[in-house]
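Onboarding guide, step 5: your first structure request.
Type a short instruction followed by the sequence, for example:

Predict the 3D structure of this protein.
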Amino acid sequence: MCGGAGIQRGSIIIAIGQTPTPTIEALESALVQYPDRTRVPIRYFCVNDRHSERLSVIRIDRTWHSMGMWKRDDVVGKWLLTESPAPPLPKYAPKPAHASPIVASGLAAKVVPSLVMVNFTIPFVVDGGSNDTFIGAGVVVDEKEGLVVVDQNTVPLPLGDLTITFGATIEIPGEVIFLHPVHNFAVLKYDPSLLIGSAKFMAATFSKTPLSQGDDVLFVGLSRKFQPLWQTTNISRIEELFIPEGRPPRFRAVNEEVFHLEKPPSCVGGVLVDTNGHVQAFWSSYSSSDRKDPNTPVEFFRGFPVDFVEDILVQFRNGQKPYFRSLEAELWPISLAQARDVGLSEEWLSRIQTESGRRHILNIRRLVADTDAAKHLKTGDLLLAVDGKICTTFRDVELATQKAKCVKLTLLRNQTEIDVSVSTVDLSGEGTTKIVCWAGAILQNTHRPVAQLGFLHQGIYCSRWYFGSPAHKYSLRAAHWIVEVNGKPTPDLDTFLSVVNSLDANDSVRLKIRGLQDRVTVTTLKLDLHYWPTWTLRKRGREWQLQHTTHGLTS
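The system replies with structure tokens like these:
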């Protein structure tokens, strides 16, 4: 709550709203009078700058975290928790407000009204996330339904507080309704009735003309301070996107061809438009890892075509729950010269050059674990055709597999041409919808980026742990699976909870743990449910619900 408002550790809170807070009891009394999600001004100063009073705005959070007062009891020898009163009802609801687009000139004036600023904060870092606060530019793609497209380096998962700012004037809460499992974008939804004058913020119009190397385009985007930016630039090259595997595993876009600009702008995102002001590509932030140190996240910007987004928007317009059908294979091109060396026939070399015009062929680089592709394909296979059609680009393969539940792949394996039938997989784009905190460790079912590495273990995946917790003390670390508790297998969260819920507050537990490198360890962890209780956070419909497990607690 305070971190999202930029309040540093070591700050002294002076007042909440108009209420002074000289004591911690006064602070609690001031906070409990506000409904959940209310935005409240807060005054404070930092210890290292005590003569400079500061003002910020916090959002009251009783959704992600409970609120209570801990007091030391010298008789019992423990700190005891007293839950704070429940927040007043009804929950805070924003009121409609007026807003108008930022002023721009020339062709940019047609595009800027479609751009919004997206702010996203995460209460619990899961799915291998590298940060908890994000900002980026979004694009309105349907003003009537309230749909916005933004990159996944701004909105990486559905768990969090999302606001969309229009015209640098009004913030409207939003929700994540689709996270593309392969490509670098998410679809957000807001309530258009909260925006008086919403017709001024028109949806972007997509161009049907694909970009080519050397094309002149107009970049239109936003700076971090919501200033509109625009400049004429050039598509310097189009190349296959490669993002190395991160540690811990997190989302990375695969099977994409992206655009490079001759003069990349300094911004938080935007679009590339043609001479009619129609969007040809999104200029988006990508999350990657440092090549020398996979634990260090890095950010870069590239453009991707509107076709990826249009495929999903069509499903929304048709009233469908959107999905993406995937072959579940990560592809990478190799030159025809290399393909010749591994046994590609002259007939295929001639057909590929004649029918596609390309001078490369696709190679299978990785396979998603526990899929039909993992059973029938092998890394190193050369993909010649899908259902008899030569496919030399990522988009060719994507289009060939989108409407087929099973496809016939023509492959070159060990210098032999073979045909293999592979079932495709429907991916929902819902993301992680349930997490558990146990012994100070944030646990979840294994997320897709781990499966993309090519292997899975039947266990509960540990995403994070808190300092000072039993998980920290007894070396339960992130990017490891708990595969057994006291000898009982724990293949999923529900099974895990059924096993640990029978334990008492100070029990010792034997854990069988498995890491990314298949190393198996057994450790004993002593619970401390008094200070580190178990809770579950899950998404039900459009709301997240926090549920505490209170059994097993002792005074």
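Each response can be followed by summary notes, for example: The first strand starts at residue 11 and ends at 16.
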